[in-house]
Amino acid sequence: MLINRVGDYFILIGIILIAIIFKTLDFYTIFSLVHIYSFKFINFYFIKLTVIDLICFFLLIGAITK
Questions:
Q1: Which of 11, 21, 32, 50 has the least C-beta neighbours within 10 A?
Q2: How many CA atoms, within 13 angstroms, populate the side-chain half-sphere of residue 21?
Q3: What are the pLDDT tens digits along the chain (66 aa)?
Q4: Where in the chain does DSSP place strands (E)?
């Protein structure tokens, strides 16, 4: 129950990051823009990550907890 809610929040954060960064939720557009954003870095809790890694992290943790 609690883990399920945590999974929902992680998936939601991952989807919101996709919408903010790519400005769309269309799969074809996202997959065509991945190579551009694979070199864009952000700092997440003092760790330098690519945007794609951060999105994949949230979606993976959300899927594991579901």
A1: 32
A2: 22
A3: 778 899 999 999 999 999 999 999 999 999 998 888 888 888 878 888 888 999 999 999 999 997
A4: 41-44, 47-50
Query: In the numeric block, which tokens belong to residue 32?
Result: 């065509």
The β-bridge relationship of strands 47-50 and 41-44 is antiparallel
In the three-class reduction of DSSP (H, G, I as helix; E, B as strand; rest coil), residue 66 is classed as coil
Nearest CA to 66 among 25, 22, 15, 10?
10
Query: For the chain, how long is the longest CA-to-CA vector?
Result: 38
Q: What pTM does this model have?
A: 0.84
